[in-house]
């Protein structure tokens, strides 16, 4: 029997984020184009004799209790596991927290998928996605494991095939943006009619054409540095630049790794920004 697993939990970016309407349950109906990238957190899942969940977080000041999505995901799988065991989970954070990159959701999704194997629960991806939705709206996307159009609150997923491999220069100015704050400050005066989007993207230009984020203006209004970063990336040759999710991470997209790395090198130094180059997966 396997007693431990090492996993990589990838970040995501939103090439598109349309907020269509506010729902009666307080959530918003969305239409997003979501893509995983190879900037990853690292998870080590291990069985232990003592009952309960022991969570250790490295690289970010995160709670290690039931308020952590990883802890909650582990708890859900433990409830249905045929094995009576405890768990030790080591989480190394490489993805910035509260940055619009989905790190917490990805960590939860990887925990669900890894423990499904480790604890022999035999759940299908669809069953894992259903559990994941109870943890967070983005969790099912990471279990889906494909670029996708995400609708509803993010749980209705349609695969997008054929998006070319792209390189991203990521810049996070160290500002934590709460998703609830961004949606709460969005001035959605009426229902938005979503423009028709193509389902086929063959080039950098095709993806650049559809870049849009309804939450961007809200976050820029409070954090104008996001607009400055976008301009820097475009000046460095990005095919397009956009804030991901509710922010504050901005990405520029490039066809070649070398161009993305040159853009990163052109950014101002010694300002405390998180920067990285990542590829789509």
Task: Sum this structure up briefly.
This protein is of the alpha+beta class. It has helices spanning 69-80, 103-118, 125-133, 139-144, 179-184, 204-210, 216-222, 225-235, 257-266; strands at residues 4-22, 28-48, 53-58, 86-92, 148-152, 156-159, 167-172, 212-213, 240-243, 250-254, 274-279. It has two domains: 4-159, 2-Layer Sandwich (Ribosomal Protein S5, domain 2); 167-279, GHMP kinase, C-terminal domain (Alpha-Beta Plaits).
Keywords:
281 residues, alpha+beta, Ribosomal Protein S5, domain 2, Alpha-Beta Plaits, seven-stranded mixed β-sheet, four-stranded antiparallel β-sheet
Architecture overview:
With 281 residues, this protein is an alpha+beta fold. The chain has 2 domains: 4-159, 2-Layer Sandwich (Ribosomal Protein S5, domain 2), CATH 3.30.230.10; 167-279, GHMP kinase, C-terminal domain (Alpha-Beta Plaits). 30% of the residues lie in helices and 30% in strands. It contains 9 helices and 11 strands. Strands 1, 2, 3, 4, 5, 6 and 8 form a 7-stranded mixed beta sheet that branches. It has a 4-stranded antiparallel beta sheet with strand order 9-10-7-11, with helices on both faces. β1 and β2 (28-48) form a beta hairpin. The longest helix is centred in the middle third of the chain and has 16 residues, at 103-118. It is globular and about 55 Å long.
């Amino acid at each position: 029997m396997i007693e431990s697993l090492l996993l990589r939990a990838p970040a995501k970016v939103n090439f598109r984020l349309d907020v269509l309407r506010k729902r009666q349950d307080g959530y918003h109906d969305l239409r997003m184009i979501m893509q995983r990238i190879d900037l990853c957190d690292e998870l080590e899942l291990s069985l232990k004799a003592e009952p309960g969940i022991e969570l250790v977080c490295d690289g970010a000041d995160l709670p290690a209790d039931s308020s952590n999505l990883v802890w909650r995901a582990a708890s859900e799988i433990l409830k249905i596991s045929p094995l009576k065991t405890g768990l030790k989970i080591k989480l190394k954070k490489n993805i910035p927290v509260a940055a619009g990159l989905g790190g917490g959701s990805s960590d939860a999704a990887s925990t669900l998928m890894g423990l499904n194997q480790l604890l022999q629960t035999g759940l299908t991806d669809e069953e894992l996605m259903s559990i994941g939705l109870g943890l967070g709206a983005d969790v099912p996307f990471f279990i889906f494991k494909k670029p996708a159009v995400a609708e509803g609150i993010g749980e209705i997923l349609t695969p997008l095939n054929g998006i070319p491999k792209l390189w991203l220069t990521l810049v996070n100015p160290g500002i934590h943006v709460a998703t609830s704050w961004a949606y709460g400050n969005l001035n959605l005066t009426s229902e938005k009619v979503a423009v028709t989007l193509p389902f086929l993207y063959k080039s950098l230009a095709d993806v650049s054409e559809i870049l849009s984020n309804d939450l961007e203006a809200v976050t820029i209004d409070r954090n104008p540095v996001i607009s400055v970063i976008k301009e820097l990336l475009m000046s460095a040759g990005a095919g397009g630049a956009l804030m991901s999710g509710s922010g504050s991470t901005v990405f520029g997209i490039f066809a070649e790794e070398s161009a993305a790395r040159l853009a990163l090198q052109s950014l101002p130094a010694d300002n405390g920004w998180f920067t990285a180059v990542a590829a789509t997966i």
